[in-house]
Amino acid sequence: MDTKKVKAYGTEALGQDLKELDISRRAVLENDVEIEILYCGVCHSDMHHVHGDWGKEKYPLVPGHEIVGRVIGTGPGVTKLKIGDLAGVGCLVDSCRTCESCKKDLEQYCLNGSTVTYGGYDKHSGGHTFGGYSEKIVVDEQFVLKVPLNLDLAAVAPLLCAGITTWSPLRHWKVGKGSKVAVIGLGGLGHMAIKLAKGLGADVTLFSRSKSKEKDAFDLGADAVVMSTDKNQMDAVSSKFDLIIDTVPYIHDVNPYISTLSIDGTLVLVGYLGGLEPILNSVPLIMGRKSVAGSLIGGLAETQEMLDFCGEKNIVSEIEVIRMQDIKQAYDRMLKSDVKYRFVIDMASLKNQQ
Amino acid sequence: MDTKKVKAYGTEALGQDLKELDISRRAVLENDVEIEILYCGVCHSDMHHVHGDWGKEKYPLVPGHEIVGRVIGTGPGVTKLKIGDLAGVGCLVDSCRTCESCKKDLEQYCLNGSTVTYGGYDKHSGGHTFGGYSEKIVVDEQFVLKVPLNLDLAAVAPLLCAGITTWSPLRHWKVGKGSKVAVIGLGGLGHMAIKLAKGLGADVTLFSRSKSKEKDAFDLGADAVVMSTDKNQMDAVSSKFDLIIDTVPYIHDVNPYISTLSIDGTLVLVGYLGGLEPILNSVPLIMGRKSVAGSLIGGLAETQEMLDFCGEKNIVSEIEVIRMQDIKQAYDRMLKSDVKYRFVIDMASLKNQQ
Fold it and tell me: Would you say the pTM of this structure is higher than 0.90?
């Protein structure tokens, strides 16, 4: 099939640093939109893939799934977007579209396996997909989002992953005015969870282990901050929360948080993939009909809903803009949680390097 | 306050066998119903309390919370029942009635602590409550159920605990026609879960480790039986179930069952109080928005709903009627899972011993 050479930033083998390289993108097909990428957010998962933390990767590996840019080409079947429009692409670029999940706008749970934005199988090219650390991307319009015009474009990029990952559970568990929501962890996901829950009218508490997060949490809109290391503070919020969004990306004990759920409350894991250690105690679950659940990004319709909501409410991510060439330092700082709260790459830096 | 001496079967200290003894019940108050107990089901928790498995007990300990009988007295404020009516009492005999849970008919989750049928604090007498292994019981009418007239009374008794414990999650998670429900374990709870889920129109599968349960499961109404020890059979039901009712009363690995939940599916623990070992893996929860939850008996309105439903659908428990004097042997057989599926004490045996 027709392809086009596109400049990107990626790695060709495990253990190598990211560097400039050329990739082949498919030419624009019937329903495709071609986007000039202006900004790309830097998700923790980008770093994990580059570091090989999650198993075998396909190379060249070009990360990036928080993509915003401008439409520069459209296939003849495209109706939703036109050249010149702002557009966004998140974690998914395709799915089967026919299974029960896809029919319910839950493409993230596609029963035949959705196509992730990088490292996924591209059924058109037969190769694997390349992410947003690149000049351009070609994506089926069903997986392209419209971006509100009134927002800072760079700060919109993280909404495509960090935003929707926290929005989807807030909506699924019906958070609204007066809901009592807690957020565990104040990073890329956590800071968006606070903003979005607050936007929905909830009373929002941040759980943190660090007193230093307190001022920032209030600045982001939190109504309260509870030190999870302080037993008295934890006891004071016993049985309080309808929903807890747990954004912690490493192994941690969820049992103390279960005690802070109300009857019928749910703790949703969105950040940590692995075994729940120490072991989960069934007693408080049974004694209060509480749940421990998980949630993965969100579907396309829900992502568009979230972007529109952010446009209305003027919600964006807190970001630090970097050059493509500074990605290694950004990863190093992310490992130390030294970012408030998301790095976003200005893709002009890739162009200017020519 | 006025009390009345009532013959019962109980134990006066840890390690002692159950034996005949006298207890004092409060006299009938304004809103009380006095019931002559005809049958009392034998729940696993009776045995655990007698054996001291769950910590310090109050003595004398008189177990029994699956109580059916006939009304023999009513206070002047009683409107729901009259002398001669059949009546039932389950696991609760009181609650605060003013908290958020009580106001929502969720007395089992009373935020101020509901009063359990035996070993609870009786706010009228100031002492502790005594269960159904006795001639008579006095209970506030709000905690007394009406019993359908068309059912075998002895076989109704286990509905008051085993029935409602499985009914409540089936209703809370909205099981109905076409729902795909699985039940783990075929005992007192499991056999009721099959009957009630089937009654609600669900497609019902039993998970079992024992081929010998297969015929019984089909006889009880199951549509399928899956050997949980057989990987091929487990793989064949991958991602199938909307709801799994986990009735297993001992420590067990829930992870293989999580794989059989559909997107948005929930596994509800109703039988096992303790730590979930081996550790629960968050990955399948996140990848399918699945939940692990717990559920405790049910509220009074829901218990009445269940009894009425059982009356309509002719659903009762499968039972083996025993004499009060045979309770030790019954406990011994329960420890070996040698009962299909619930022992029920014919309380006439206590009277006739005089």
Answer: yes
